[in-house]
Amino acid sequence: MPGLIDDIAGLRNSRVWRSVFRSGSGESNLHRSLAVQQNVFLHLASVKVRRRVLKFSATWYLGTLSLGCFLILITTGILLMLYYHPSVPQAYADMKDLQFVVSAGVFLRNLHRWSAHAMVLLVFAHLFKVFYRGAYRPPREFNWVIGVVLLMLTLFLSYTGYLLPWDQLAFWAITVGSNILAAVPVLGAKIRFLILGGHTVNANALLRFYVLHCVILPLVTVLFVAIHFWRIRKDGGLYVKEKTDDRN
Amino acid sequence: MTETEPKEFVASIDSDSRRTPVRVAFVTRRTSPQVRTHDDPYVMTFPEVLFRAATAVEALLLALALLSLFWDAPLEGLADPMQTPNPAKAPWYFLGLQELLHYFPPIVGGVLIPTLVVLALIVIPYFGINIETEGFWLKEPKKRMRALAIVVAALSVFLIVFEVWSVLVPTILIAGIMLLGASPAANSGFRKWLRMKPLSFWIMSWFLTVAIILTVIGTFFRGAGWALVWPWEA
Ligand code: HEM
After folding, report:
1. Distances (CA, A) of B126 to A136, A144, B18, B129, B207
2. How many alpha carbons lie under 13 Å from residue B54 in its C-beta half-sphere?
3. Fewer Cβ atoms within 10 A, N terminus or C terminus of chain B?
4. Which CATH architecture has domain A58-234?
């Protein structure tokens, strides 16, 4: 074992590795800081956190789990895209293929679907957890607003995905939802036309929902998640109740 | 050194960062560096936080994978615009809203209420009342009792006019629970806990309760024609 560990350390200190990751390996906290700070993704987070925020009771890890769902959804979603055509009635036939032809197709579709439901649930739970521990208060107020945007994005992502199987469930759920939109005063019918590409849910709506679901909304969500994490660092890390805090 | 001309400082903006390296730091009250007021232990993000996050996500993946092995996603027949299922339901997270549509005209249930909810969520951290954490009953209890009575009464009349019993009942229940903490005699155990809760807690808890009840009714207790049914009859 020690031989292996030395080998890994040697690899991480090699010229090629360091040209990629910039930080080498090392035993010190300086090296551990660099591993975070010198990485474009990890540097959104701070290099150290207060031990108390790691306790399960502090966050229930709900934000982390929301992110986990999102990552699972991106992975399974890309795989599903390999088998899916956003056209009528091929979309439905592709669902049947996933069910009967594609290896592990049912599992893939199940995992995507249940992760989507789980994400909506977890994001809601995260919102309420943040609220009840008072973590929305200044200086974190704008990160709360970004959170509300993320909630909306999560709902839109789920909703646009709901249409894609093009079965009765999908078709009528989106019909019910888009009819609500039409109740918006003055612009209602126009907004619905814009979103559906027609007066009713049809092949144009499927294509629009597909583009929103697979391209636009995921990209926007990634962007806002990045801002959300960066703001946590900028706002001084996760909220913990100060013992001297006069806000109780 | 003899007196030299006092150096002249000109406040100006020059984009050449090498020619104008003048740095002036104003330490104002609002932006002054935070004074350390605590002595909490810190841990390094790498590896402590990252490993914990990875473990949590792995547990989640395991749970979802197991679920996916044993429970299949629904797939009904091909979409058919000529065949309306009864009832036609939105996804579960919109069923609370769809339930509201049963009581209110679309403009209220479908547009006004959701818009207000989203706006209310956004402005939460910008209102002093939500930042204050003092128990609702600790200050001016008489005045607050009157305000509470008026708000609950007005809301109840509104809900009775539209016959929204599923919101009326929890509204009155929660107001009742609030009252348990109203008396100064409520100084131990659960009642003290209630007494220490701020107004924002009560509003959010009311909202959460109502949202859950409406969603559960919409999901499990609504059948053909949006009539009330038992879940096993649907
Ligand atoms: C895609 C959705 C979201 C993701 C992936 C996400 C992710 C996270 C993560 C990983 C954290 C760190 C703490 C934790 O794990 O709980 C966090 C904190 C936070 N989130 Fe979210 N979040 C999302 C949505 C929301 C929503 C809907 C809100 C509220 C409206 C929100 C408000 C906050 C706030 C204020 C914090 C800081 C909490 C503190 O300082 O203790 N987030 N988020």
Report:
1. 10, 10, 41, 9, 19
2. 7
3. N
4. Up-down Bundle (1.20)
Q: Give the range with max mean pLDDT: A7-21, A218-232, B78-92.
A: A218-232
Helix/strand/coil percent split, chain A, to 5: 70, 0, 30
Q: What is the mean pLDDT of residues B190-196?
A: 92
Span A191-205, pLDDT tens digits: 999 999 999 999 999
Candidates B148, B99, B88, B146; CA nearest to A162 is B88
Q: What's this model's pTM, rounded to 2 decimal places?
A: 0.92
> Which of A33, A106, A183 lies nearest to residue B110, judging by beta carbons?
A183
The structure tokens listed for A61 are 């890890």
Domain ranges, ordered by start, for chain B:
92-233
Phi and psi at B179, nearest 5°, equal -65, -30
CA distance B150 to chain A (A): 26
Report yes or no: A47 and A90 within 8 Å, Cβ to Cβ: no
Contacts of A217 (CB under 8 A, 6+ apart): A153, A156, A157, A160
Q: What is the pLDDT of residues A20-36, one digit of tens each?
A: 888 877 778 898 899 89
Q: Beta strand pairing status for A48-50 and B42-44?
A: antiparallel
Contact A168 B134 (CB under 8 A): no
Say how many C-beta atoms besides its own lie within 10 A of residue A111's C-beta: 24
pLDDT (0 to 100) of residue B36: 58
pLDDT at B37: 62
Tens digits of per-residue pLDDT, A60-92? Answer: 999 999 999 999 999 999 999 999 999 999 999
Cα B160 to ligand 1 centroid, rounded to whole Å: 38
Chain A nearest-CA distance from B156, in A, is 26
Q: Do the beta carbons of residue A117 and residue B193 sit within 8 Å?
A: no
Of B93, B121, B130, the CB nearest to A120: B93
Q: Among B61, B144, B18, which Cα is nearest to A119's?
A: B61
